[in-house]
Amino acid sequence: MLLLFVMALLFPENGIGIGGDTRLTFLRLPDLYRADTLSMEVDVEQLLSRSMVTEDPETDPSMNLFLPADGIHLNTKPVFVPANADSLQNSVSRIQFAQGRSHLLDPFFQSLEDVGSGRTHHSRILHFGDSQIENDRITSLIRYRLQKLVGGSGTGLVQAIPLYSGSMAYRQAQQGEWLRYTFFGKRDTTITHDSYGIMAAFTSVPQASEGDPPMLNYRFNTSRRSGQCNYVRVFLHSYAEGGTIVFQVNDTITDTIPSISGGFSEVNLRHPTHVKDLKIYLDLPEGGRIYGISFESVQGLHMDNIAMRGSSGLVFSRMNREQQQEMMDRLAPEMILLQYGGNVVPYMNPGYYERVFKRELQFFKEICPGIPIVVIGPADMSIREKGMFKTYPELEPIRDALKRATLESGFAFWDLYEAMGGTNSMPSFVHADPPLASKDYIHFTPKGANLVAEMFYNALMLEYSQFTTQYSNN
Known about the structure:
By secondary structure, the chain is of the alpha+beta class. The protein folds into three domains: about 1-35, no CATH class; about 35-150 and about 300-474, Rossmann fold; about 155-300, Jelly Rolls (Sandwich), CATH 2.60.120.1360. It is about 30% helix and about 25% strand. The chain has helices at about 1-10, 30-35, 45-50, 80-90, 105-115, 140-150, 320-330, 350-365, 395-410, 415-420, 425-430, 445-474, and strands spanning about 15, 25, 95, 120-130, 155-160, 170-175, 180, 200-205, 215-220, 230-240, 245-250, 250-260, 265-270, 275-285, 290-295, 300-305, 335-340, 375, 380-385, 390, 410-415. The strands form five sheets. Strands 3-21-18-17-4-16 form a six-stranded mixed beta sheet, with helices on both faces. Strands 5, 7, 8, 10, 13 and 15 form a six-stranded antiparallel beta sheet that branches.
């Protein structure tokens, strides 16, 4: 320690040049005894003071920022409180739109009105993202509040064998040797095709053997809105003709679908009440693949959480286009959210990422023409340097690359990094009481995830309020 002290005292503050742009540096004297700085540069208490979120995304806020106490009145004209919307102008981090595309979200807002009034049955949001959204984080709060706004329940799309454990909506078990494969992350080299579905993952259905056929079992927590469903959709691929699927609800055989066709298909179950216990028996002669199962209500808004741990959002254009098109046509989303960038920060050149992300946006533009896309940028991420937690130097260039790619492609961008407070805001989330982010200085805690979800929800509702004001004036 004495030797370190002497070296720190004598070593030049700017280091010693050892050739070219390379310099040899050493801890300065204050660095030897300084504790990790918290760098509390963002007033998290101010963010929390405008929020009523808890660790449970289905906790109702004490007041809704825009809606009257008795809900939305879409059957006549929506009723909002303009003063509340106006007060948010200076506190909400706004969604940024491509030049000349300020009305990009109007078709989605119109779909909300149509669903809320009963003119149409469904509206859907696909929320793709990396590990920041896994286990339904961020998605769940947005879904819950929109479903309370216009109706609907259920989690939307899930994998037959869950990628991540911890769903509050249901518990899942299975019978048989089921295997799950992903296109993102480390791929299984034994899979030679690229048909993974829009979730970039599928579950292999085992062939039936003597005895009980392969079965998936879901037990729903119907006390939660996300655990209430009466409409089940199975998206699958059978390797041969002549399969059979049996739905058993609450220990009663409810529906049997024989003669399943080979190739891609969708099998549905409608039930008059909320399903509490669901068993799906699949007897496919040569096995098959399940691309996803959607738990929905017959009518209302549905929002899918499609998390891809470690992904940069560059997988869609590399998978089987025809198969994704078929699945997307059946889901018919009204809006798509893409939340990526965090996994790129330490590794990828911003200019390259901008070019390849544009390719993915073009892919969605072609398979979902006219559907608005909102790209949510990465959160702040900290790296430790000499006892201090600072924003990764590559973060802002990657954020800017995402933003340029999005706006130049004609879509919308929401800056999560700036909404949090910008540079060095993550330590304020980590050391908040209670913590809003984990000690990896990258991922949010459940309450932190709900807080940033509410930030986006408020930004979306602000645009919605302006749409409805224009609608009312017309």
